[in-house]
Write a structure and sequence with these properties.
Blueprint lengths: L7 E3 L2 E2 L5 H24 L22 H6 L4 H7 L3 H20 L3 E2 L2 E2 L4 H7 L1 H9 L4 H12 L8 E2 L4 E2 L42 H6 L1 H15 L3 E2 L5 H12 L2 H18 L8 E2 L26 H19 L5 H12 L3 E3 L12 H4 L7 E9 L2 E6 L4 H10 L2 H12 L20 H8 L6 H21 L16 H5 L5 H8 L15 E5 L4 E2 L5 E9 L2 E8 L5 E7 L6 E7 L5 E5 L1 E6 L3 E10 L17
Organism: Nonomuraea composti
Protein name: Linalool dehydratase/isomerase domain-containing protein
Pfam families: DUF8034
Length: 630
């Protein structure tokens, strides 16, 4: 804990006509306090586990499902961190413990950690744990688990080969490398749901049209055997998401061995990029790119060719690069993150959405009515035939990179995307994916000064999404005493009524976390000095309208009848130094640290203007100094 007391600013403007966004924001907090209780009461049991009478761990796809149980609560700690009640954090902790016990009983976990699966999914399932660690950094149980989980990937642990700097297999975890993709058979396809993605390796002799393999078990086993020999061992780029697990341990404990491993492992992937135009997605058991794929830099599990291409590759590259840059201060790591984005953008071109069959539901509201109007589409995947599978660029990736770096070149990449889009970037669509994101474009336009009505429209949209989820819970036809079967476990995510994207954007100046295993990257955080806990105090609303390092602007409003005090922190991990802070039109005051205090008498508001130096301090998850200097 830093012992110096932060300087404090004081609000002096009386609130006579509260801004609409402030009232809407507090209403959204209140609505979610009711909504998560409805979800918890409908879908969980007394010890926090989900109502589920079926079983995981069986059949050809028996390694899947752990993430889906944790994902139902992934953003509940975030709601607490932003200002939600103590109860929502207690519920999140209870559900995490209950689900962990439930999955352990099914044999899906070993000592509290997943036995072995890919990091595209493990990253999703760990978001709840990361959120709890950020919310309760002094908790001994969480700190012990964070260090023990990290040890699974450090030298001496079961998953990492320090000689060749590889995570040994695409499926990995508490039981070490989990070779191949199933514990029972080499059969592929193991699910007809994979049909839209085609074959992972369409160039091997055993390949055949998907439907032919699905109809012929003997051919499917022959194909699967070769596929698993080539793709079921060695390293894959989505394993970079494991750096969040180890970085989380470092942020809690400060042990240099954790930071050293993150640097070492990300360095290995940087070296695999050296001399190539595009970052590869695979390295064999000896660390050689293409070692098991006849020299191909593409074709790894959850890589460039199969099943999704850029979304997992780009997300993992950003997560790994950001973690390394955060822990070392070396911004050159971000070149690894930029590479996959620029690689697909070089191949992007205007196309008519009507000509593309793979447009995802994320973009359908944006492109409605524009089927015959060209817009920029980029290829998501690459195989022997070249680039294919065109779609709208996943905007959350370049936005997350720019938010971390704040570099002009990263902002220019987003501007190029905006200029080449035929759809309206200012529009707010009431849609909600399981990632609880999807509104990066209108938020970006708001920060650029081109979307002034965004806060009110976004808050209303978030409230509507919350209400839609509550209605879905109340009308759910599944027997509440039995729960879904193993094919219906995604329904919990679809009905999770907690919505934090709007609050993250508007109160902290930050995008939603990268869903496949990213750590929270907040521009600012708040702590309630009166209750000595994270989050905005009761009755207080916040709006961040600018996040430039030399000019961060925050409007704070106290709508209540009691004085409130809070601490504003630079960065999720106190990594940003606040150089100066000013209240309204007063001259700025020197700060020289990550915290500044603010006093808000009853029914007052204040505009803070902060200048910051980003990533100027060692990152740490810790509580701030609670005494607010006068």
């Amino acid at each position: 804990m830093r012992i110096s007391h932060p300087p404090a600013l004081r609000a002096s403007r009386t609130v006579t006509d509260p801004p609409a966004w402030a009232g809407l924001q507090r209403e959204l907090f209140a609505a979610q306090e009711k909504a998560w209780r409805i979800f918890s009461g409908r879908y969980t049991e007394g010890d926090g586990r989900l109502v589920f009478r079926d079983r995981l761990g069986q059949g050809l796809d028996g390694r899947d499902g752990v993430d889906d149980f944790y994902e139902a609560f992934f953003n509940w700690p975030t709601l607490y961190l932003l200002g939600g009640s103590d109860d929502v954090l207690a519920a999140a902790r209870r559900h995490w413990r209950g689900v962990t016990a439930q999955l352990s009983e099914m044999g899906m976990l070993v000592d509290g950690f997943e036995r072995g699966y890919d990091w595209f999914h493990q990253g999703e399932g760990l978001l709840l744990f990361y959120g709890l660690c950020l919310a309760e950094p002094e908790d001994g149980e969480l700190r012990e688990l964070a260090a023990r989980f990290a040890d699974l990937y450090l030298p001496g642990g079961p998953n990492y080969d320090p000689e060749h700097r590889v995570i040994r297999a695409p499926h990995n975890g508490a039981a070490g490398p989990r070779w191949g993709f199933s514990d029972h058979d080499v059969y592929f396809p193991w699910s007809l749901a994979l049909r839209p993605y085609g074959l992972p390796l369409d160039w091997i002799d055993e390949a055949a049209p998907f439907d032919e393999l699905a109809a012929d078990p003997a051919r499917a086993r022959a194909y699967g055997k070769v596929m698993w020999e080539r793709m079921g061992r060695g390293d894959t780029i989505v394993n970079l998401a494991a750096t969040s697990l180890v970085a989380n341990a470092y942020l809690l404990g400060g042990e240099q061995r954790h930071a050293a491993w993150v640097r070492e492992y990300v360095d290995a992937w940087r070296e695999r990029l050296d001399g190539r135009e595009i970052v590869p997605d695979n390295a064999g058991t000896h660390g050689i790119v293409g070692e098991h794929l006849d020299g191909r830099w593409y074709g790894g599990h959850y890589g460039w060719s199969w099943p999704h291409g850029l979304p997992p590759v780009g997300s993992a590259a950003i997560i790994g690069a950001a973690n390394a840059a955060l822990l070392t201060g070396d911004r050159s790591y971000l070149e690894l993150a930029r590479n996959p984005l620029d690689a697909v953008l070089r191949e992007a071109a205007p196309r008519r959405p009507a000509e593309v069959s793979t447009i995802t539901k994320r973009w359908r509201p944006h492109l409605r009515g524009l089927a015959d109007e060209p817009t920029l589409l980029a290829p998501m995947r690459r195989d022997d035939s070249g680039w294919f599978d065109h779609n709208v660029m996943p905007t959350q990736l370049p936005v997350a990179l720019w938010h971390f770096s704040r570099d002009a070149a990263d902002r220019e990449r987003i501007d190029r995307l905006r200029e080449a889009s035929s759809w309206d970037w200012t529009a707010v669509h009431t849609q909600r994916t399981k990632e609880e994101s999807g509104h990066e474009e209108p938020w970006y336009e708001y920060l650029a000064g081109r979307n002034p009505g965004y806060p009110e429209r976004m808050l209303r949209s978030a409230a509507d999404s919350c209400a839609e989820r509550v209605a879905a819970i109340e009308n759910d036809p599944v027997d509440p005493a039995v729960g879904p079967d193993a094919f219906g476990i995604h329904d919990w995510q679809d009905r999770n009524p907690v919505v934090t994207e709007a609050l993250l954007q508007l109160t902290t100046g930050s995008p939603q976390v990268l869903y496949n295993g990213g750590l929270a990257q907040m521009h600012v955080r708040y702590f309630d000095a009166g209750r000595r806990r994270p989050g905005l105090p009761p009755d207080v609303a916040a709006l961040v309208s600018a996040i430039d390092p030399d000019r961060t602007v925050i409007e704070l409003v106290n709508l209540g009848g009691a004085e409130r005090s809070l601490v504003v922190q630079g960065g999720a991990f106190a990594e940003h130094r606040i150089d100066t802070a000013g209240a309204d039109d007063e001259p700025p005051r020197p700060v020289g640290g990550p915290h500044v205090g603010v006093r808000l008498p009853a029914r007052t508001q204040v505009r803070l203007t902060l200048s910051m130096t980003l990533h100027a301090a060692r990152p740490v998850i810790a509580t701030p100094p609670w005494e607010v200097a006068g």
